[in-house]
Amino acid sequence: MIIFRLIGESFRFAFDALRQNKLRTMLSLLAITIGIFVIIAVFSAVDTFRAKLQSSVDKLGSNTLYIQKWPWIFSDNFAWWKYMNRPTPNYRDFNALKERLDNVKGITYDVTASGRTVKYRSNSLDGVSITAATIEYNKTWNFDFEEGRYFTESEHANGSPICILGYTIANNLFDGESAIGKQIKLMGRRVTVVGVFKKEGEDMMGISQDELVLIPLSFGRSIIDVNSERYNPQITVRGLDEISLAEMESEVTAKFRAVRGVKPGAEDNFAINKATMITKQLDSLFDMVNIAGWVIGGFSILVGGFSIANIMFVSVKERTNLIGIQKSLGAKNYFILLQFIFESVLLCILGGLFGLLLVQLLLWTLLWAADVKIVIDIYNVMLGIGISITIGVISGFWPAYSASKLDPVEAIRS
């Protein structure tokens, strides 16, 4: 109880001192407020964009590999001529690899024709992407249906002229009516709609099924060259959940080298891409942004810390007579010490709270003006309060210590 009473009395002294010097208090808070605002604003923005980008990357699949001609990430010593001479993955490579792989959930070969036009009666849409894929596309990509269904084995084997539409395409072509059973025209052929993907919305990497037309590869072979490099052919392999990505990558690499006839010791003539490659690049990018936030906010907090230390020395000088009276009445050194440390901490906490308030006002403004939603994580709130308390203790300790060591007689005379 004595400890709690001591803390309560110290806070009351500190609050009275701050209340009696309002202008000085507000000026002292300014640097701390700006510093906390910069750090928390940067961290909140980074966390929000990291989460959005990560959700986009997750669509690629954490245990999915993409066999392509070009790697997603290039090294510093990028030898472009080597990649130019690589053969493009083709349908024959896909069939040979599929025969050799056992421990996989699904394997798909797909090609994409971009910038196409689809029509339904008088309605037409330009700039549509048409993807032709093998039957296990639903095992290598995650999606849900708004209505309809996926292709059947017989439809794919027979090359039936059918398709699945993205939500945006279906909504624009059919004006909100059901698309199932209707025929659209694409690349000079009439195709029956059997399904519509559920709306996914836009993401930061442009990975979405909303503006996609999916057709069976067996039908696609009749309208495009599925082995042509211009259609970006790729082989997608999704492993079983119980098998690690590294183990699956090792197996796929070895067996695709055998398919391509790559000699032992020779360099791969293909690239195996995965979502973790993008994740690592994003992590390094956001780490640099975080460091920049710490540096910019750190300078403001450093200035704020010196400002508060200076104000605390002024406060000690102004109250030297009162300190002498308190000590002559029996106040212990630690009571004087805590009194001024609590005042410094209270100053910094108020600055931190004002900084957090400014961040929240900024987020509301962005949401209202640009419909950009950024959320302050509870970790960032605790970080802001923790920094404020730390700066308060550091800035206030030496002035508080000097106050606690004053001789009561000399202090009363001053």
TrEMBL record:
Regions that span the bilayer: 27-46, 291-313, 334-358, 378-398
Topology in membrane: Multi-pass membrane protein
Main location: membrane
Record flagged with keyword NAD: no
Family membership noted in the UniProt record: Belongs to the ABC-4 integral membrane protein family.
Start and end residues of each MacB-like periplasmic core domain: 25-254
Keywords linked to the UniProt accession: Cell membrane, Membrane, Transmembrane, Transmembrane helix
Protein's UniProt keywords contain Ribonucleoprotein: no
Domain ABC3 transporter permease C-terminal: 295-408
Pfam family, one: FtsX
Source organism: Pedobacter flavus
Name listed for the protein in its UniProt record: ABC transporter permease
Compartment(s) of residence: Cell membrane
Superkingdom of the source species: Bacteria
